[in-house]
Fold this sequence. Notes:
alpha+beta; Phosphatase 2c, domain 1; six-stranded antiparallel beta sheet; five-stranded antiparallel beta sheet; 6 helices; globular
Amino acid sequence: MLPPRIxxxxxNSDARYSPEPSLETEMRRIVESIYGPPVRxxxxxxxxxxxxxxxxxxxxxxxMVDVFQYGSGHTSLAVVDISGHGIRAARHAALAKYALxxxxxxxxxxxxxxxxxxxxxxxxxxxxxxxxFFATAFFAILDARRxxxxxxxAGHEAAYVITPVGPRMLGATGPIVGLMDDDDAFxxxxxxxxxGDIFAAVTDGFTEARDAGQIFLGPEPxxxxxxxxxxxEAEQQAEAVTRYARDYAGERLQDDIAALVVKIDAKTAA
Length: 270
């Protein structure tokens, strides 16, 4: 058996040696970097993200939430659930994240961005000669100054704008991405936002969590959780959402859960 690889720590005259990080450690860093550093505050917005794995062991998955503010002062919001599991799903999640960022920063609207991602999924699968690259995706571009949000929901079933007078479900506006090469299959909606409104979305690990009677949790409890925690910061609300699904399913939780919560901040919104 070969001895473990070692590296010299630069700048240390004692030339101490330490073992190279394990492959598992390195892969963990790569996958965790898909989420990037936490974003808690942006102009006019209070942002919260949370993730809960279905197993205690580290595993690679395709659930991804992303918040990206770019040159025009707009903010893109993405909630993507890649088909499959493992490193391939994680790799595709990273591809979707940075592709959507690139499209938005180039000036594409939400509809053009999802159409471009759909084409990328199809062509990437063909070029790499691998299993199909499918994903449900909710992608929105939020203008905090004008308090509007344009969005496309590609097969995504759990996204809401929750106002003080009631919730609005943001229903699907197209099929899952990677399924059909048809730009006309997707459409875009725009919603008006007010100070105090809350956007909340989860991946299907939440909606498909099952209790002891095999009853699915569904999307509706998401609204109740947000309302019960309305006074909390967005990060705390997102954590409450993932915790609720975990407690509901217990050891029966079969899929990872990612949640994104964005509060239109009354204190800082322009």
